[in-house]
Every structure is written in C-alpha cells, then in structure tokens.
Amino acid sequence: MFGDGELAYMLGLFHDAGKAGCAWQEGLLRVEGTDNRVGVPHKSAGARMVSAVAGLAAMAISGHHGGMTDQQELTQLRQETDEETDGRFLFAVPEASAARLATWRRLFPNKLSSRDERLLFEMRLRMVFSALVDADHLDTAAHRHGLPGPQVAPPADMSVLAARFADSRARAIQSRRPDEVSELREEVYQAAINAAASKPGIFRLAAPTGLGKTYAQAGFGLEHAARWGKSRVIVAVPFITITEQNAEVYRSMLDTDDETVVLEHHSSVRFTEEGDGQGQQSNHESNRRQRLAAENWDAPFVITTTVQLFESLFGRKPSQIRKVHRLANSMIILDEVQALPHELVVPILSGLRTLTEPPFNATVLLTSATQPEFQALTVWKPSAKRDAVQITPVIPDPQPLFERARRVTYEWRLDPKPTFEQVASEVMTQGQALVVVNTIADARNLYRMLEHTGHVWHLSTRMCAKHRRTVLETVTSRLRDGEPTLLVSTQLVEAGVDLSFPTVWRALAPADSLQQAAGRSNRNGEFPDGGRVIVFDPADGHMPAGYTTACGLTVEHFSQAIAKLDDQQALARYYRALYRDLQLERTSHDKTKWPVGQKIQDNREKLDFRAVADGPLIDAGKSAKRDKREAFRMIREESVPLVIAANESEAQRIDPLLQAVSDGTITARTALRKLQPWTVQLGTQVAQRADVAASIDNVVGDLGRWCGTYNWNADTCQGVGLDEDALETIL
Full-prediction pTM beyond 0.85? Predict the structure, then answer.
C-alpha cells in the first residue's frame, strides 16, 4: 500500500533470526509447558544480518518487541558477532540467503540528507515497522487459535458502503419538517458529496455548529474513498463523548445484521472477553475479531480519538504503532480540528502533509466551525523540494453560510468584571441557561451558588462517564419538555454535545471555544427571538495554563463590535497572530529554547524514536531519566485512574472486577475497559496530596479505588462528583 513490500519482506524474513541460536532454543525448552518468557534476547542477529540491505530500517527488527529506539542502538547491534546463530538461521531458512543475494541494491538508506528526506524516511520507517509488528502479532494469534493463517479482513467495497450511508441518511431525515436549518444542513451535505470527487489531498470543511457535520464528513469520506480507491475511512475526534455519540450514529447507518463495518476504538470501548459469560458462544469469534481489529484498525470505517490517532502515529511501541500502516491510502477525517494542542501542531501538520504525499497517498479532511489557519505555518509552506500544501475547501466561500446560519447574538461583559455571585444572581432569573467556565473549581463554586434552586446540574471530568451521560440525558429531556433547567459545565460540553439553550454564559476563553459554546444556544433555531451568548470575564475566575495569550487576542480581534466570531477573515487573522505570539516555530542556535513541537521535529529527523515518544534524556551519559514534558503527548497532565462507586449497587459491579485485577485473574487493561464508565482521571499532583491519597485504595499500578466522598444523587442526577477541595488538607 506504500511501496515498501520488498523491504517489509526482508524484515519479516529476518526479524526472528536470533531464535535460531542455541541459547534461545535451550531457553525455549526450559519454559516449555509454562507461560514464562524465554528470557533470551533475539533482536540483534536479524538486525545485524539484514542491515547491509535494509540500512536504517534494520531498527524495525531491533525494536519489534520492545519498541524502536535510536540509531545508536542499531550501531551497537551491528558491531556484535554470532557466527553460530547466523549459520544455524541461514541453514534453517535457506530463502534468507537467496533473498540477500537477489537484492542488489539497498532498500533503505544508511544516511539521510535534507530535512524533507529525513522526515519522509522517518515516516517510511514507522510504516514498515507497523507492518512488521502487525504481521508478527497476526501470525502469533493464528498459531495460538489454531487457525490456518493470519486473519485479515477482505477489502471493503466502499461504493456499497457509500450508497448504504446515503440511503440511511435519507431515511433518517425524511421525517423532519422542512425549515431553514434543515435546508442549510442539506446544502452542507451536498457540498461535501460534490467535493468528494476532487483529487486526493487535504480538504477543509468550514461550517457553523449544528449544521450536520457528522453526516457531511462521513458522506464525504465514503464517497471520496469509493471514487479514489481508499482502503478505509478513519474519523478522529478530540473527546470521547463525541466519539461515542458519533459511533452510535455511524453504526446505525452502516452496520447490518450480517456485517460489522464501524470500529470504535478508544479507552472507553469494551469488547466482550472470552470467558466473561456474556452472550452466546457463537458471539465469541465476532468479539475476538473486533478486539483484533481495534489493535490494528483492520476495518473499513474506524472512529477513534485524536489522542489515539496521533500518539500511535508518533509512538514507538508495537502495541501503539501496529495500526499506523493502515493510514496509508486511507481517508482521514479530523473532526473539531481546532482542538489540536497548539504546542504539537507543528509535528502533527508535518505528519499529515507526509501522509498525503507519495508513497502514502492518504486524504485528510479538516472539519470545524472555527478553522485554524494552518497554512500560515512554515511546515505547510513551500520548501526547496516541495510545493506549499494546497487545501481544497469543501465550501469555497463559507462566509455567506455562516451569516445565514447565525442564530445567536453576543454580549460582552469584560469591564467591569462581574463576580460569580453577580452571574449566579442573574442566571437564577433565567428559566433555562448554560454556564460554561474554564476550570473544575469554578464550575463547583458556581454550581453551589445555584444549588438551592433545585433545578441546576453540573458537568465536569470529576464525574465518571456514566454519570456525565446521565446528566446529559436528564438535561436534554428537561429542555425538550420546557422545564426550568440550569447547567454549569466545564469546556467538555462545548464540542459535539447536542444541547440547545436559549441563553449561554461563557467565561472568557479563546475565540474557538466561545464559538463552540455558542453552538449550544438556539442550535436548531427553535427560539424565535434567537439565542443569547454572554461572554464574561469573572473577577474571581481562573484560566487554564496557556489561555492568556489566546484570550488577549480574542478580546483584541472580536470583543464588542470589532468583528463577529464567525467572521472567517477575522478568524484567520486571529490564528495568524496566535501562532506568531506563541512562537510555535521559533528556532535559534540554543535548542534548549526551542518550543516543544520543534524539539520533537528535530528528534524525528534524527530517527530518535525514544526521544519523540518518551522525551529526550535530561542528562545524557549520566542518567537514563527522560524529560516527558518534551515528548509527543496529546494530554500533558499526568493522571491516575480512580474507580468510583456512588452507591452499593455500583459497588457490587465494580468491586469484583477490582478484586480480579488484584488477584491477577484478569489484566488491568481488560479491567480498565470494563470499569471505564465508573472511572475518574485525577491529576497526579492532586492524587498525591496527603488528604486525597488517604482516600485512595491502590489496586494495581496506578489504578485506585476512591473511598472518599463522591457527591452524587442518583435520584436527581445532581452533584459535583469527586470533590478534592472538600477534603481537609493535612499540612
């Protein structure tokens, strides 16, 4: 799929050459009949023997179990000798000698020159490593299950899937009454279908919130895949809540009783395990195939998170990277693309650019109501050997669409700054209102000011996923029935959550967050007087790290009557100024002062996979400790998973699982999938506080059971969840 078949064959042929050695064979006899590992390294022989032909790609063999490292390790392996192992391997596998003799040229270079070449070959090495470890896993799985060979799904007929999706959508919308919003949604969808015929590359879908991007982007992806022979459609979204919501929609449109098309892959997905006692035995094979597909994305339609996508693309471990070769010749859709972390935008854009070029030939669709100005960054500008990235707009001039779709008016309350008490006082007079603030502490504070009304709900990541979903269901039902409903939330409600309030209050935030919050007001045009969005700068509020620059530029470019937040030209100016002020591409002679994204790019060029994924050495030559702050990590804050039981019924479901993990009868990975609905991720620094740690029972690793107070009323679905601030800190 990306033209390295001969190289992949060589790596596959030689990757286990070290197992021919007497030491490894003797170790195998020692552990026969047990689950113990052989314990004898076998990576060096194959890497050494194939390096004359495979060049730097021999790193794939040296890392096929523990993960790719760097060129230095390969250099050391090449210096080793083991004639006994080499001779035994070539005698046992005569085709290996023939393959080396038949190859008269180097299949992968030993040295890379220009930056563009280094980044291209870095991606090629990631791809061929991915193919190698995936084939290795599939072959092992086939052996363990007594299958005749590796199980790989047959190529999907994307034309059939595109037609099935179009028919499902037509049936889904036929019962809706025609109105202005439905007409706008139809325009967006048809524009996407028409644009899908354009030649592969990078596309941008800019459309207002609430105009059916979920349908439009999938329709584009399937039609484009059918037209241009793409292998699969991969949809990546920034938040698990959106992933779950969209996956449910796509499954209803594409899956049939006889065919599972949609693969949902993220940390919350649970596949039934063999031996669970759930379902009939006939379902076990289907569940096993789904689990395997989740590991290598062997499915025609994948929905995942941007965390899963990009931490796989820039990872180094086999378990992460074995799915990466599936990106070649695929249709990649990045939903809510404005949510990509700014500090990682440079390597992400670099990787996407390479994926869309030969030999990988993927297509990328960027969707958002607040499209970033990525082409302003050097990484997408022309270089000595490459033209500038060409972005094809799905809607050539989206500004008239934004103007026709305006359903809210903005009010700015920045000077004087209101207090939360003043905000609460006014919110209480409004029957239905959403208030979005910037921190968990602010959300709890404001919620408690409104709690006495009896009709206020709360959303934050201090609540487990199950309770957040229950709150959304409760609030949605009350809004539909016209009941008094106030919701206080952190930013997690802003993207992809189908709520519609007459009034939204939004604490000052970056421009894209303000517009996303506005998408929760008058979403379907149901309020004749329009929606109302009040942007306020709370005198006693807080901001996340990194908001200051973006908020300052938001005020400068949009506040009061300067420009509307959906003004596409103003938004482009805002993003150009933001990238300039954040200095995302700053370079100097002193590399220690480079931004994180540039340091990651530098380590990619060096083929230092460990530095990219785990961070560079802090004190090279003296310590093995690495600086994780400079690694490619989509979520920067370290956290620990805590399992919550809000009542006895929930305790009866989760405690046996935790006991099974503790006893070792199931793996922590399996348990975490099953426990995800009752899990809260708590920042490591908070979890290490003396009073907080006293309320955590450690289970295994960093997995803990929360034994402290969890504020939740199952009857009303109200409460703030885990409240570490209610504990008395021990000094």
Answer: yes
